[in-house]
Amino acid sequence: MDMNRIDEVVTVGTTEVWEVHNSSGQVHNFHVHDVQFQVLDTDDPSLSGRKDTVYIAPNQTRRLLMRFTDFTDPSMPYMFHCHLLRHEDQGLMGQFVVVAPGKTETPSAPNHSGHG
């Protein structure tokens, strides 16, 4: 985790599929701020419907379908991270911003006083 790095820039109004792979030997509960998502490619009825956190077993890949509909601010990042406190404390997280069409993130250091 680098508080001054934006890992992803997402354009508002877009639908994206994020492929999240757990290459570690530990379980992770992957969480995304700002949006809910649908877990693709699963027969597990408990994974139907909209989610904001999903369990990812070691060496498992999950494809997540999410739509970014609002809250654009190129200087205000959202987080994605493992929801296990021990993993968060170890820096297992990243940041993304949602921007208007044709825009990019603000080149200055992110302002972390807003959403989360």
Q: What spatial form do the alpha-carbon principal axes imply?
A: globular
Quaternary class? single chain
How many helices? The count is: 1
Number of strands: 8
N-to-C span: 15 Å
* Sheet/helix structural class: mainly beta
> Which regions are unreliable across 5 or more consecutive residues at pLDDT < 50?
none
Family: Belongs to the multicopper oxidase family.
Keywords: Metal-binding
Pfam families: Cu-oxidase_2
Organism: Antrihabitans spumae
What does the model show?
- The protein is mainly beta and 116 residues long.
- Strands 1-8-7-3-5 form a five-stranded mixed β-sheet. Strands 2-6-4 form a three-stranded antiparallel β-sheet, with no helix packed on it.
- The longest helix has 5 residues, at 85-89.
- The protein has a single domain (8-99), classed as Immunoglobulin-like.
- It has one helix and eight strands.
Detail the topology: elements first, then pairings:
Layout: E1 8-11, E2 15-21, E3 28-32, E4 37-40, E5 53-56, E6 61-67, E7 78-82, H1 85-89, E8 93-99
Parallel strand pairs: 1-8
Antiparallel strand pairs: 2-6, 3-5, 3-7, 4-6, 7-8
Family: Belongs to the multicopper oxidase family.
Pfam family, one: Cu-oxidase_2
Organism: Antrihabitans spumae
